[in-house]
Amino acid sequence: QVQLVESGGGLVQAGGSLRLSCAASGRIFSINAMGWYRQAPGKQRELVATITSYGTTNYADSVKDRFTISRDNAKNTVYLQMNSLKPEDTAIYYCKLSIGSLEHWGQGTLVTVSS
To answer: What tens digit of pLDDT does each residue of 17-49 get?
Structure first.
């Protein structure tokens, strides 16, 4: 069984920064992809950024040049550094671990950006 525990969400003013963390535990294979998704009120969940175990990254256009995803394979942890936050970044942020066709999700952490 795989567990994902997110942390680092909170309230921040526009222009500020936050760093999210997601620690994975359990039956985890070395080759996988981890990522962050978000869901704003009344909207569908959307991709924010992903990173493979080889370090290949992918970002949504809306967060490029502001957010940085990274991972520590030894700790099975993925991070999301969020800078220059905007009110439209307000959402619940979810961590996802993909192993082949299997997907595991965290419980989510709320990020609120005030104007």
So the answer is: 999 999 999 887 777 899 999 999 999 999 999
